[in-house]
Predict the 3D structure of the following.
Amino acid sequence: MTDSPLATATAQILKAEREPGLKPVVKTFFDETTFTASHVVHDPSTKTAVIIDSVLDYEAASGRTKHTSAEQIVAYVKAEGLSVAWQLETHAHADHLSAAPWLQEQLGGKLGIGADIVRVQEVFGKIFNAGTPFARDGSQFDHLFRDGDQFKVGALDAIALHVPGHTPADMAFIIGDAAFIGDTLFMPDYGTARADFPGGDARMLFRSIRRLLSLPDQTRLFLCHDYKAPGRDTFAWETTVGAERAGNIHVYDGAQEDEFVQMRTTRDAKLSLPNLIMPSVQINMRGGHMPEPEENGVSYIKIPINKL
Ligand SMILES: [Fe+2]
């Protein structure tokens, strides 16, 4: 295998299969307003935890934020006696605001995202005319992950894989036998994420997905969103590589790249933008921080007219 990050990830997953103590405990908090699954992942032996893709509640009409969703995470972490090592973002989300800075204040942990966030900052910094106070070097984050970066969550092995396509900076974080894959794949009956945001690329997405699907069949996959497929009444956010290979409606084994690109592009052209894209992108490109307050001490969200 020439893809060495993939080989390392595969070995890590197989090791966790042999030694069940190396499998993380995963608790998911699902936000039905933005259909986002936030995961708290921990090593049972050391109680070291990682929080992935947290949600800051935001009411568009009033411009008010609330911490109701994030408070549930704080309560769980405290009740379980966990110590938080990382706050991770699989990518700069366009449909919800990140609660990572607030959770960092409550619980600690280093804030990490993919290194290509700088490309996202470049593109959206221009679109929102963010000016010089907005650094486009990823410095809002404590750590920028590159493909193949290995790290530890307590006694558990972890590795980051770069899986661009939905955005240029998407990462999958694999902890023990569990892969947190953001918006690459959705549940098998729902398919895949859109690839039409600035810097997105359907062909790249297909290749990233096929790379993830070459991990062992039993790899647990945890998704960032679910929208309930037609005919399904409950939200779901966990599946396996084997289940996706067998049954994902877009990228099952045997699916053809050109056909996928055609399908994804046609479908994306009909999708409207997420309700919260304006506040989400402006805040998430800043690592979850509000834009610099104006001289009256208030932060504002911009809306570019006829631009997106
Ligand atoms: Fe997303």
In short: The pocket of fe (ii) ion is lined by residues 91, 93-94, 166, 183 (CB under 6 Å).
